[in-house]
Each structure stands twice: as C-alpha cells, then as structure tokens.
Amino acid sequence: MNQPEILVLYYSRYGATRDLARLIAEGIESVPGINARLRTVPAISAVCEATEAAVPNEGAPYVEYTDLQECAGLALGSPTRFGNMAAPMKYFWDGSSSEWLNGALIGKPACVFTSTGSMHGGQESTLLTMMIPLLHHGMVIVGLPYSEPDLMSSNTGGSPYGVTHLAHADGRAPISPEEQRLAKAQGKRLAETALKLLQKK
C-alpha cells in the first residue's frame, strides 16, 4: 500500500521559497509513514501570448488539481507581493472551484510559508491571506507553537503563523540556521497532524 503524501506547493521567483519548501519536505519525511510531494505553479503574464513551457526547466513539476484530491495535507508557500501571495499562486487557487465543490480538502491539515526582501515586507499578512482560500476549502490550519525556541531567538524569519525567510532586497540571503530548524519543525508537525487525522478516519 502506498504511503500517504503531503503536497508541498510553492511558487518561487529567486529560489528562497523553493529552498524553504525543500526544508519543509525534509521535515515531513522525517516522520515515518508519510512522504512529501513537491510541486510548483507556472508563472503567469498579462500578455496572453506569453506562456510557460509545459514542463519546468528545473525544480518540481507543475501542480495539477488531482494533487489536491490525493494529498493527506498541504504546505503552501509563496513570496510576498504587497502583503499577499504572488499572482501565479492566487491564479491556481482561483481555479480550484471544482475541488471546493467536491470537498477535496475538507478536514486535511495545512500550513503556510513565505519569503520577503525586508523584515517588515508583509510576511505575516502574506501568511494570513494565504490561509483564506485554505479555510474556504475546509482545511485545518497548523501553525508553529512557541515551544519551538527559534521563534523567540530568530532575528531573520519566523512566525507562529508559519515559517518565514528574510531574503534581503537582492533575494540572495541564505536560509538561516533558525529558519532551517523552523521549516523542518513545521513540516514534521504537519506530517504528525496528518497521520493523526488519517488514523481517526
């Protein structure tokens, strides 16, 4: 029998959100009995003729709506765009009405994560607004508790609403040790929650 999988879905322009996604996936797979499924969304353009290749040149494959139906939980990540998720990720969720009507995500656990160029660049508002479509889908939101000591000591990223990363203006700051530990802890907590909920079915 195949092990359940948690969908780690992200959009990343310069690589920081992708790096967080990989760390969260590592945390998920530290829990026996569950796997991570990394997926991304294609960039979009206001110019109708501009399209992405059918298959990404590198990194995770593009997400399909069947991934939502098949997952046991979801970790959702996007860089911030004026305090909100990036348009490519919003575009994907705007097309998920069929999954909403079918209740594909009801009762499944979810967490959110983001990366910003500045400390006060909208990290927490991005996390909160990313939760909104997940709540509409009936998901159970899993945050990060203050039992994680790095939440109190980090001077880069970190939030009880979800993992964050301070990438700086050029987007090149590496994931700090505190951010790495928090990302893995969030993935682990999400995986443990998903398994507990599966056992109750």
From TrEMBL:
InterPro entries from the UniProt entry: Flavodoxin/NO_synth, Flavodoxin_CS, Flavoprotein-like_sf, Flavoprotein_WrbA-like, FMN_Rdtase-like_dom
GO CC terms of this entry: membrane
UniProt keyword Flavoprotein, yes or no: yes
Organism in which the protein naturally occurs: Polynucleobacter campilacus
Family classification: Belongs to the WrbA family.
Entry cofactors: FMN
GO function terms (MF aspect): electron transfer activity; FMN binding; NAD(P)H dehydrogenase (quinone) activity
Source organism, top-level taxon: Bacteria
Pfam (any one): FMN_red
Phosphoprotein as UniProt keyword: no
Protein name: Flavoprotein WrbA
Domain Flavodoxin-like: start-end pairs: 6-190
Signal sequence segment: none
Keywords recorded for this protein, A-Z: Flavoprotein, FMN
